């Protein structure tokens, strides 16, 4: 029981932080894609529609090629990542699932990220 009392607050904090991040990320992706650079780091990678990029500049370049979108999240699952995995830094694993509707398309597409 003692371990649960230590872990439960970490899980709750991870869930709050992950849900807030997911809302911020997809809102920014849909409405202000050009300001997303601070959400990425030099080791970030992206793959979209057969194209890929690594690093902030390449990720931002590829994101500008993605048609404007409207995202609807259906689920967000968040898990704390042990600090040992990131040299003592706090990290949260965020998995999302939902629908995205791209400009000039009439049917939304499912996604999981």
**Major sheet:** 3 strands, antiparallel
Order of helices and strands: HEEHEEE
Are there runs of 5+ residues with pLDDT below 50, and where?
none
Major β-sheet strand ordering: 3-4-5
* DSSP strand tally: 5
Specify Rg, calculated over alpha carbons. Answer: 16 Å
- Report strand %: 25-35%
Number of helical regions? 2
For the record, give the distance between the C-alpha atoms at the N and C termini, rounded to a whole number: 33 Å
Helix content: 25-40%
Class by SSE composition: alpha+beta
Determine the mean pLDDT: 91
Which overall shape is indicated by the principal axes computed on the Cα atoms?
globular
Task: Write the SSE topology.
Blueprint: H1 2-31, E1 45-48, E2 51-54, H2 56-65, E3 69-81, E4 91-102, E5 109-112
Antiparallel strand pairs: 1-2, 3-4, 4-5
């Amino acid at each position: 029981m003692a371990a649960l009392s230590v872990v439960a607050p970490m899980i709750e904090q991870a869930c709050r932080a992950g849900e807030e991040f997911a809302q911020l990320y997809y809102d920014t992706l849909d409405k202000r894609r050009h300001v997303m650079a601070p959400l990425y780091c030099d080791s970030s990678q992206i793959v979209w529609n057969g194209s890929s990029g690594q690093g902030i500049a390449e990720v931002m370049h590829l994101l500008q090629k993605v048609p404007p979108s409207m995202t609807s999240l259906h689920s967000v699952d968040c898990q704390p990542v042990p600090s040992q995995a990131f040299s003592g830094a706090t990290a949260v694993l965020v998995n999302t699932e939902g629908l995205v509707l791209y400009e000039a398309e009439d049917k939304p597409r499912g996604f999981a990220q």
